[in-house]
Amino acid sequence: MMRFICILMLSGCCVYSHADTDAYIKLFDHHGKHPRVVSVTFPGNANTLDMYNSIYGHGAVIENPWVAFRIYMDNRQSLDLYVKQKPQMELDVTGFYTTPEQLAGGYGCDVLWAGKSIAAGSFRGWQDNAPVTIDTVSARTQTVLSSSCVEVVDREWVYNGHKINMLQKYSVKEDSRDLWVEITLEGHEDTDLFCTGIQKLEIDNTGFIRQHGVAASWGKNVPDKSYPDMVEQVGLSIFIDTEYIVDVVEDELNYIFVVRPDRNGKIRYKVRAAGDREKDGFKSAQQWFDAIEK
Q1: Which of 7, 16, 149, 173 shows the greatest Cβ crowding within 10 Å of its Cβ?
Q2: For 77-101, how does the pLDDT look when each residue is reduced to its tens digit (9 = 90+)?
Q3: Quick count: other Cβ atoms within 10 Å of Cβ 180?
């Protein structure tokens, strides 16, 4: 039987709510209440799909007025993207699952189909010249630290034959569309490599990756395969300091930075995203790339 530990928190509790940022974990329940929790931990042998489906939205959600991200509660820990039509706080209402009525009323929606890609700045291992997920751990935890910060902990990740404790922090600010990421690794070896990056969009993708630590993509995709006519145009980008970069790789699905932590076991980067769903936002690849490279 699947088991997990959680600490309940009332959705109205102001300590995890702010006018212009919000972060939450909600449990899935058949009564549609989806109560907020502060933290959830699964044992390492929990079924991946059970973990994924037990959380409403499939993982922790963090938002600011322009965008929202969710971090999947599974071995991928992918970063998925939600873009708004106008700057406002709305994820506590839509929960990433915008209805047609809400969409018509000016709400945003999920705009990204991550699939097997590295999505919007997800952090992965790097083995045999390819990204690898965080498969073997003793426990996985997601915690809401504040209205603007979420923490993900992977205990005793078995990687290259030894165990690594990994802590990931994801944070947003009320005055920027960026997502800040800080990875802290303990128990890694000098030869261990990791990776992050951004995906190529599945339709009409255009993009680039630079040696100095910038990558961007722009294109179209269908985020919900149940609605094939709902095509979203999306811009993704990532910024990472050259001190972490070991190699720059482009494969069929992704623009990838192969990275190594600094002497303190840390890797820091930020992700920026947009979509032409935004009323006053970016409407072309050229506009997006100009903003990224200026």
Answers
A1: 16
A2: 999 999 999 999 999 999 999 999 9
A3: 16
19: pLDDT confidence band, cut at 50, 70 and 90? Answer: confident
Measured CA to CA, the distance from residue 51 to residue 105 in angstroms comes to 32
pLDDT of residue 286 exceeding 60: yes
As to burial, measured by CB atoms within 10 angstroms (0-12 exposed, 13-18 middle, 19+ buried), residue 68 is buried
Q: pLDDT value at position 150?
A: 98
Smallest CA-to-CA distance from 61 within 195, 204, 179, 155 is with 179
CA dist 16 and 291 (Å) reads: 32
Whole-model pTM? Answer: 0.91
| 101-114 pLDDT tens trace | 999 999 999 999 99
Structure token digits, residue 245: 């970069």
Domains and CATH numbers, the chain: 5-293 (2.70.98)
